[in-house]
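Fig. S4 source data, part A: sequence.
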Amino acid sequence: MVTPQKTVSTRAWLELLALGLLWGASFFSIRIALDEIGPLTLVLHRTGWAMLVLWAVVWLRHLPVPRDLRVWGAFLVMGALNNVIPFSLMAWGQQFIESGLTSIFNAATAIFGVLLAALFFADERLSARKAIGVGLGFAGVSIAIGVEALGSFDIRSTAQLAVLLGTVSYGFASVWARKHLGALPPVVSAAGMLTGSTAIMIPLVLLTEGVPSLALEPRTWAAIAYFSLAATALAYLLYYRVLAQAGSGNLMLVTLIIPPIAILLGAWGLGETLHPSAYAGFVLLALGLVVIDGRLVARLRA
């Protein structure tokens, strides 16, 4: 049985498209910044500046700040699962693989999210339709990686694996958020999560990459401004707006918008070219997401 979906306004569809554009272009800006700063320093910039913006929003909206230490502990875990681990793994991996390919693997987040939700929540059981969608998604990921990469572990294969592990961490973050942060206002949850992320990243960066330099090229600062302020702070605000207006089923469609944007920007601005298997893998992955969503399947049956 397919869960009924909300009737979505034109404005909500436009905001969904805007969210896909914001996140799709983030892979391009991250690759530019990696030319001058290390991946962990990049993540610190991303979480730190976005944290300040979101706390400013919380203050302007006069939202209550949690005082329970257990809530802040939950923020710390959420920051690790949803920011520190995936951001770091993907930024490191993007040094060795194309930004467009990174975005394709990132789309597997929804696949792992469905699997982990089925494991942890009784009301998210893995139906036959979802199992088929997950199978198609995994097939797409395997094809995108490439048969030759599956049999070797060079730096490129390791980078692809790192990005995929990042999507698994996103899946665990969804489970954690549902269990521990569902009662809080979304903006407060996002600000608290980014605070936890930043608290973890500061010692990590100091121990591994040293004190971050602020004497950076203008293009690097422009990239940092984009992926921290636009693709993180603004994107979180937009994400929760779309979630409220369109529902989680429609929001999953954003994963189909991100890779084409990242691929086009990678080709235009970075001279990237992807192997045909990457495109074939994305088609299969997208088909898997459509099957999991279920609405098109229901219409075809009708």
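Fig. S4 source data, part B ends here. Residues 10-301 form one domain.
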